[in-house]
Structure formats: C-alpha cells, structure tokens
Amino acid sequence: MFDKEENQNLVKWQLDIQEELERIEHLLRGHIPGYDDKGNEVWKESPIEEQVFNDRGVREILKILTWYLNKNFVLSNFSEEQIDQRVLQFANTLTDFIFINYEDFGLDTKEKMKHFPMVIMNIVNTVEASYNRALNGGERESLRTARTVNQTEPLGRFQDYPSMQSSTKNKFSIFRPTTWGR
To answer: What contacts 170, CB < 8 A, 6 or more positions away?
Structure first.
C-alpha cells in the first residue's frame, strides 16, 4: 500500500512543473532569493530599476513557457533530430517575439537590453531540458520502471579496510565508552 503511494508521489513530483514555472517567474521579475528570519527560502523584490522585464513581459513569456513546459511534452517520444529541430524553432521564434516587443516588455534601456541574450539562452536551455526528458520516450519508460537502491557496504572511516574494522571494533578506547568494560 505504501509503495504504491510513494510511487504515485514520485510520478506526481516528476510531472509537476508548477514549481519550476514559479521559479522562472521570480527570476524574470528580478526577484532575489534569500531567507527569512526563520530560515525559510523567500524571494525578495528588487528595485524597479533593476527589473529587466515589466509585468506584461513576464506574463507573455510565462504564457509561452506553459505551452512548452508541461507533462505532454515530457511524456512524448521524440528523436534527437526532432528535439534539435523543435528547440531551434523555439529559440528563433522566442528571440524574434521578445525582440519585436522589447519596448512593450520593459526592455527600454541599454542596461536592460544587455540581459536579452542571457535570458533567451536560459529559457531555451530550460525548454531543451524538458524535451530531452522525452528523448526516445525516456521519461515514460522511467515512470514504468521501479528502481530500488540498497547499500551493502558499511559506512564509516574504515569502510575501505575490512580487516581494520574487526580488529578495532572490540579494542579498548578511552573515547568509546562501550569498550570500557572489556
């Protein structure tokens, strides 16, 4: 019963890209990652003059990304050639789209325009990673396959020296109270 529930949670985690989209939104808005007084990770707003995109620009880019970062793409079965073609097409189209609308999206200074190539590269790399999960149906295959990893080697400082483990285990040591009565 628990194994099935754990597998469902893993599947949900693998296919849920909402957290990634939220992270991308924070980055596009220029938010700065940090921690609150309780040690929780939070995103802090940066000054408006340091924000590369305005609200419209962020919304438009996120709208496009939701078409590409979803479980339908991840669970597809693409060849390497198909991935290369689609990612190149996406990169060119996204570049053109943002460049044509750069003023409407808030890229209205030379300083902000300097970020343009880096933003494009990072978004394209993210989409490419999503496509690569679908390389030859790999993500579907991984979801159908259960994997269990067991460690049979001892942990600790003598794991590479088995003969030393047994000889030091029962010897008296002032630093190990469990050996004091021997």
So the answer is: 179, 182
